[in-house]
Amino acid sequence: MTREKVLQKMAVELPAAASPARVAELATMLQRALEAADDSLGDGSVTMIVNNFDMRAELRARDTQGAKAVRVIGQVMADPAAAVRKRPEARRVAEAIAKYGTGIAQLKAEVRVGKKKTSFDDEALGAIRGVATELAVKVRRVAGNTFTHSRVLRVGRDRESADVRARIEIHGEYRDVLVDKSAVPGFIDAVRAEDLYRIELSLEWVLGDSGRSEIDPRSVRATRLHAFAPITGDELMEMVVVSEQAAIAFSRDHEADA
Question: In CATH, what number is assigned to the domain containing residue 212?
Fold first, then answer.
C-alpha cells in the first residue's frame, strides 16, 4: 500500500505528563483553530494524531487546502501580528487559540511547523490575545459572482443536520463548498458523469489592511453548473477584459474609501 503524502505538519508538545484533561484540552484547541482557519475542509484533508505517551499532538495536512489552514495556525502561534496582516482568517484563528489555549500556554508548550520551533507560553498567548481582542482593522468585503471550471468529485453532508457541500476546484485547490438546494440534483448527476463543468459561484472577496484581496472560503456557494463547452479565442479575451475591468473598478473603489 502506498503511503499518502503529507504536505504540511504542525506539532504541539507539552513538557508534562499526559492526562485525559490535558489531552482533551490540547485536541480542542487545535480542532477549534483548524475550524477557524477553514471550516470547509473535506474529510481527510487534515488529520490529528495525539500521542498520550509524550503528550504531543500533530496536525497532518494531506491536500493544499488543509496545508494552507495548518500553515496559518502555525503563523499565528509564531507571529500573530504578522499573520493577521497577511490573512483575514488569521484573526479568527487567534480568537480560537486565545479562548482554548490558556492551560496549554501555562505548561510552556513547544510548537513545531516544519523545521521551525516556537515557544507557546503565557507571553505568546498574551500576544495572540492582543491580536484577537484589538479593534478590527478596516476590512472591505465585496460580494459578487464568478465561476470556475471543474469536475465535481463528491456531494454530501458532514452530518445529518449540515448543508450539502460539493468538492470542486477553485484556483487550483479542491474545496468543499455549499450548494444551493435547487442545484443539488445537478451536482449529484455531475459526480456520476465525471465531466468538466462550468460552475457559477456566489462569494465575497476580503481586502485587509495589507491591500491583498482573497476569497473568504466561508462565503463560497455554488449556485448553478453547466456542461463545459470549448470557447473561441475572442470569447476568452473578452472574459479577460471583463475580469481586468472588475479588478480596476475594485481597486479604485478601495482607494476612494481609503
Answer: 2.40.50
Q: Which residue blocks in the chain are alpha helix, DSSP H?
A: 20-37, 64-78, 80-86, 89-100, 102-106, 122-133, 184-193, 233-257
| Domain shared by 115 and 37, yes or no | yes
Interstrand relation of 197-207 and 140-150 (parallel, antiparallel or unpaired): antiparallel
List per-residue pLDDT tens for the chain, 258 residues long: 345 688 899 999 988 877 888 888 999 999 999 999 988 887 788 999 988 777 889 999 988 888 999 999 999 999 998 888 887 788 889 999 999 999 999 999 999 988 889 899 999 999 998 888 764 555 577 888 888 989 999 999 877 777 899 999 988 888 889 999 999 999 999 999 988 999 999 988 877 555 667 788 778 999 999 887 766 777 666 665 555 555 555 555 555 555
Whole-model pTM: value is: 0.61
Domain that holds residue 38: 8-133
Spatial separation of the C-alpha atoms in residues 181 and 188, rounded to whole Å:
12
Residues 165 and 50 both lie in one domain: no
